Amino acid sequence: MEELPNSELQREDVQKIRILLVDDHPVVRKGTRELLEGVEDFWVVGEAADGLEAVKLSKSLEPNLILMDVSMPNMNGIEATRQIKAVQPTVAVLVLTSYDDDAYVFALLEAGAAGYLLKNARDDEIVNAVRAVAGGESVLHPSVARKVLGRFAAQANPTPPDEEGLSNRELEVLKIAASGSTNKEIARELDISPRTVQVHLANIFSKLGVGSRTEAVLYGIRRGWIDPAAL
User: Where in the sequence of the chain do the CATH 1.10.10.10 domains occur?
Assistant: First the structure.
């Protein structure tokens, strides 16, 4: 377990994304830390070798985001995520693992993880996912996204489209978001600003009574607005 001295914590820029790195393999932690520390707006405030340490460090270090492994001794990432989100609901959890088994995927998403990446993701994909999840977005590895959409599509009983008060532009934003596009990518496609995209997403969440992109997309699939086969 590694924790930075308070004096060093106080010197760091408070605007940086505070990251707690959790993985039971020292070599993996070292490589991931080197990647993250090479990014100007990232700050790795500590490391944990298992879920139990992660829960303790999360309370003391108050990270913005936890990069969480799944299979670890003492306490796995699923239980650690569940305990952390229960007492620190604003802490974002981004899973970084070698496993995309259905049991892991759905257990972690239900526990409160906002993102799920596999360790074969490119460095830039990890960096972008950290920024996105820390900013309140949901990020899923393509294979994981297919599992999630597949499960909900199988359970869904699509009804005729009912826009629930969404504007045409909000529907456009939702459909593009369903493909996994970031706010910047949506903004470029629709020729609007990223800030306007954020406003549209906030309106969508409010009108649909959901709290994340994933929930909004799944809502759209159930209502028949989004065809999962086209994603």
Answer: 158-230
Helices and strands: H and E segment counts in the chain? 11, 7
Q: How confident is the model at residue 47 (pLDDT cuts 50, 70, 90)?
A: very high
Q: What span, in angstroms and rounded, lies between the C-alpha atoms of 199 and 39?
A: 27
Closest to 112 (Cα-Cα) out of 43, 214, 208: 214
- Composition of the chain by helix, strand, coil, percent to 5: 55, 15, 35
Our CA dihedral for 228, 126, 104, 205, rounded to 10 degrees, sits at: -50
DSSP structural state of residue 39:
S
What CATH superfamily is the domain 2-148? Response regulator (3.40.50.2300)
pTM: predicted TM-score of the whole model, two decimal places: 0.65
CATH 3.40.50.2300 residue spans of the chain: 2-148
Residues in the chain: 231
